[in-house]
Specification:
single chain, 197 residues, mainly alpha, 9 helices, 85% helix, elongated
């Protein structure tokens, strides 16, 4: 179960594949995110708690009472959730600076993940009859999550196609102006050769 919990904690990090390559290089790796979540859970900084609550208010406001009740039930789980929300908030903020459309989709994904983690915690203590309902709810949430991931991938495909078209156009332009480029380059070489040293 701990492995599955970890998967839900960093599930959103997999979305980094759906963000343009340049942006993905600037994003933390899932292992780095998990280490940050652990650090926040251990150190329990107040500013992380405030950031997590503000982010939850944005992506899943109906989960705020659940976060409060989690604090009463288990401080360890509460701070793990705070750490996760804080890291997700930071990811969305960084992404929003470059692409507000993708940031909005990612924020929606993180809201779904918050709901899935809450259902996962409820599942542990639920009776078999309630577990079936919780499982169905988790399946619905994860299905929506994958739909948003596909939207992100569609955006990435469009970006790749646009960049490819630009490279093709530039290559064609260079082919058409080959002799002109060669002449300019040779002229530069000759000028450099004639400069006094």
């Amino acid at each position: 179960m701990a492995c599955r919990t970890r998967q839900l904690l960093v599930m959103g990090a997999g979305l980094l594949l759906a963000v343009p390559a340049l942006e993905a290089q600037e994003m933390p790796k899932p292992q780095e995110m998990q280490a940050q979540v652990q650090r926040i859970a251990q150190e329990r900084p107040r500013e992380a708690e405030a950031a997590a609550r503000a982010f939850l208010q944005l992506v899943a406001p109906d989960r705020l009472p659940g976060l409060d009740s989690l604090k009463v039930r288990s401080l360890e789980q509460y701070w793990m959730e705070v750490g996760q929300l804080t890291m997700q908030f930071e990811l969305v903020q960084n992404l929003n600076r470059r692409d507000s459309v993708r940031a909005g989709l990612v924020a929606r994904m993180f809201g779904l993940e918050a709901h899935a983690r809450a259902r996962q915690r409820a599942y542990r203590d639920a009776s078999e009859s309630i577990r079936a309902t919780l499982r169905s709810q988790i399946e619905t949430l994860i299905a929506h999550h994958f739909d948003i991931e596909n939207q992100l991938r569609t955006l990435e495909i469009a970006d790749i196609e646009r960049r490819l078209a630009e490279v093709r156009a530039e290559t064609q332009r260079r082919i058409e102006k080959r002799m002109e480029f060669v002449r300019w380059t040779v002229d530069d070489i000759i000028r450099d050769a004639l400069r006094p040293q």
